[in-house]
Amino acid sequence: MGFRIKKQRVYELLFMACILVPYFNIYEATFFTWSVVVLITLRKKYSLTIVKQLACFSAILLIAFIVCLFDFPKPFDFAKDIAYMLKPILGLLIGYQLCKEYFDNPFIIILRTGIVLAVFHMLNIAYAFTFLHIRDMPTLRMHTGYFSDFEVYAIIILIFRKQLGLEISYKKVKLFLPLLIFSTALYLARSNFIQFAILYVAMKGYFVADRRSLTILALSVIILGGGYTAIYYSNPSRTRGAEAFFYKIKNAPKEAFKTHVNKYNWKDLNDNYRSYETIMTYKQVTDEGPATIAFGKGLGSKTDLRTKMWLQTSFMRFIPFLHNGFTTVFLKSGLAGVILLLVSILLLFKNKPFDNSVITNINLIIVGTGVYLFVSYWVFLGFYFIVDTKAVIFGFLVRYRENIARAVTNRMQ
């Protein structure tokens, strides 16, 4: 028993390391850490559920690899794209391989990791506010982080702890939940608020098509519509304090869907940059003919923005990855890749029912993740984003669900 406990702690630390390292926004460190962990935790057997996901992302990478053989990309661009497009595969394997059968309750590992992230984030904000004298939202987010999907999952797990079989004292809940909520709110990320709403609705079972669910969803749409209308007509400031966040909410519906952006108008370009990326990529891929539309431009390909743009750390004109995950896959692997990406999302909605309440609620989280991925891929690359950890969480949940099902089946025999 002593050996098992010691081994569990090792896997917990490996899991925590794999979640924490992407937050430093150095993909070389993430790729190295994730690759090493995958190699040292390889399994002999994998379930059909995880194999299907791995097959989708492997096929997207394979298409991009085959296409690039006809174009001879620069070695550095080729290697960089392989590393980036391997990220979902590595994440799925890490989550699946690190969730062991003898863990007391894997959800506590997610919770502990979320708490560490929240504490780190709060200390980072305190440092930026006190010593760097940062007061405006864009600069604060640049120094302390743009979003944290992982902390939202930790919040959901705490709120629905009873349904998920997580045993934790109410005293700890009163301490941890406000910390996680406050930390997540301070990212000022629209996507995190959307993520929480989707996962919460999913855990309530409102994505199941019945009269009650449709009524609640309709009321939610009305309430959200009313809130957005109030924000829109309040005409919030682009740069002033909390108003800047509301300005981003006001601009959200058209930011990623606008069909024309004037690159010579800095406000239009800044507000609708995601749309501009998509427009330029679509034009450049479709201009090369049906074969490129079907299979993309391959590894090492880039979108020409036609003008140099300041993107986080430097001015760039040619970019290999975009904010939009669907458009990025379209650039690398064409419509074939986009279809595979959609299949990988739709597979999340096909969960085999099992007579166990914890499995039922894990299925609800996975369904909520599937719904949220449509948003996540559209605005922030989804599983492909360098600081994203949802692939690890999904692999972890799949394995935990299988462990429970196996344990229940064994007891019944």
Automatic annotation (TrEMBL):
**This protein's name:** Putative polysaccharide biosynthesis protein
Which residue windows are coiled coil?
none
The lineage's top-level taxon is: Bacteria
- Work out whether the entry's keyword set contains Transmembrane: yes
Q: Where are the transmembrane segments?
A: 12-40, 46-70, 82-98, 110-134, 176-202, 214-233, 329-349, 361-387
Query: What keywords are annotated for this sequence in UniProt?
Result: Membrane, Transmembrane, Transmembrane helix
Protein's UniProt keywords contain Transmembrane: yes
Originating organism: Flavobacterium beibuense
